[in-house]
Task: inverse folding
């Protein structure tokens, strides 16, 4: 019983170390940054750098873990003989053809241990099908274990994101698509950092922004506020859940077991004697035909591997949870825990901050990492937050109805007390929450892979593209 625990702990430690190395592989630090003597001077110039640089389009993912990567939309027309204007002329005939609900820039934030090839499938969905420019970023998971690095990294990313937004022409309809807890919490932290920039200070610091001129500081604050006002939508895939030892242990164990499953599938597919490698085998075969489900037709090595995986998946989870509970009792980790939970509670949208932002939650009962109960609980918290801030508003309107199978939509309109009928609709703050519940055979961050048509249909309904 001790050997599986030790093997699991060793493999988990190796996975976390590799994750940190992969996340920082393409991130080069300056020599001055690591020297205490020049650290303050370097940080000041480093902060101003993102507001004086020229934006270069990146077509690869070499810096996706330390920066944002831009990918333009593949807006191709079927009739190439016609000449299309670069900027369409807005007249009465084609004004109605422009979809104001469609984002002009989509920002994707990946899950823990996400590979660029996995995230590229979602990027292609937006660039090729929806014809939307994208920015992508995969945040490092080691923030959980090294929380004192959060403030510097988040402040740097927030400034870079604002600068890219400026260089792309300040699009006024920004959408976010975030995955799992790693994505939603980094989205919340980014919004909190940008909110602090709009107030003239840095995230997790009361010190004002240091710049060469007061006008630069003012411009940063104004641009940060404009960026927040440009956020119109957020798609949340397989999230959120509280940052606790229980769910982090589930995430680590789930990622590790996923690697074991991939390893087993590769070994089985490369084994010419295995039934799955024969041409007659089908991935849609019944469980009874699986080589792991019938001892009489399986080799001893496959049975041993199955038994070992079962032991590894069941026993060390409580052991890992116990170790993480000791880690989460540290004061600095508690500080991080409270910080990210507060940032998530303060995500922009609705009467809380007066911004019209709509949400789409993608979840299902088959998610073993983040239970659907936690997602439903957070949606209720968002609705209650909106009702609390609009308690004294007589113009509030609520609707909660189903618009498709396993799809739900919640809308809350809150007026600002204006009596003018012309401006009544403009002055309403709208919180729209839509949800798509997938079937039980769709796992964590697997909804698009399992049900691509339903996934795309949910996005089209959300952006009102149909």
Result:
């Amino acid at each position: 019983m001790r050997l599986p625990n030790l093997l699991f702990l060793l493999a988990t430690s190796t996975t976390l170390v590799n994750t940190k190395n992969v996340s920082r592989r393409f991130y080069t630090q300056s020599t001055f940054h690591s020297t205490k003597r020049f650290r303050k001077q370097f940080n000041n110039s480093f902060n101003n750098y993102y507001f004086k640089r020229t934006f270069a389009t990146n077509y690869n993912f070499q810096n996706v873990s330390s920066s944002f990567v831009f990918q333009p939309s593949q807006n191709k027309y079927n009739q190439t003989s016609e000449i299309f204007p670069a900027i369409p002329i807005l007249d009465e005939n084609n004004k109605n053809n422009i979809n104001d609900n469609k984002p002009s820039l989509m920002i994707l934030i990946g899950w823990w241990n996400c590979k660029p090839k996995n995230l590229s499938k979602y990027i292609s969905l937006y660039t090729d099908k929806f014809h939307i420019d994208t920015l992508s970023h995969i945040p490092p998971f080691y923030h959980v274990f090294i929380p004192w690095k959060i403030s510097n990294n988040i402040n740097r990313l927030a400034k870079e994101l604002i600068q890219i937004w400026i260089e792309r022409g300040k699009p006024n309809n920004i959408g976010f698509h975030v995955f799992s807890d790693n994505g939603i919490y980094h989205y919340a932290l980014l919004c909190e950092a940008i909110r602090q920039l709009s107030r003239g200070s840095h995230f997790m610091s009361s010190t004002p922004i240091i710049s060469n001129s007061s006008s630069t500081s003012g411009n940063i604050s104004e641009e940060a506020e404009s960026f927040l006002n440009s956020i119109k939508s957020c798609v949340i895939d397989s999230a959120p859940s509280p940052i606790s030892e229980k769910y982090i242990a589930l995430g680590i164990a789930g990622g590790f077991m996923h690697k074991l499953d991939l390893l087993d599938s590769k070994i089985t597919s490369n084994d010419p004697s295995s039934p799955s490698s024969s041409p007659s085998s089908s991935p849609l075969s019944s469980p009874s035909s699986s080589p792991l489900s019938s001892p009489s037709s399986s080799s001893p090595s496959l049975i041993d591997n199955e038994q070992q995986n079962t032991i590894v998946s069941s026993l060390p989870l409580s052991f890992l949870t116990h170790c993480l509970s000791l880690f989460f009792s540290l004061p600095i980790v508690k500080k991080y825990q409270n910080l990210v939970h507060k940032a998530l509670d303060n995500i922009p949208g609705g009467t809380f901050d007066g911004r019209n932002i709509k949400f789409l939650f993608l979840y299902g009962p088959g998610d073993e990492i983040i239970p659907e109960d936690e997602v439903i609980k957070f949606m209720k918290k968002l609705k209650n937050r909106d009702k609390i801030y609009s308690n004294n508003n007589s113009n509030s309107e609520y609707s909660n109805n189903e618009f498709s199978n396993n799809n739900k939509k919640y809308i809350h309109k809150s007026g600002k007390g204006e009596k003018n009928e012309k401006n009544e609709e403009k002055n309403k703050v709208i919180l729209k929450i839509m949800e798509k519940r997938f079937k039980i055979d769709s796992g964590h961050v697997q909804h698009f892979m399992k049900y691509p048509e339903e996934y795309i249909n949910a996005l089209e309904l959300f952006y009102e593209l149909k």
In short: The radius of gyration is 24 Å. Residues 364 and 437 are 5 Å apart (CA to CA). DSSP finds 13 helices and nine strands in the chain. The first strand starts at residue 69 and ends at 71.
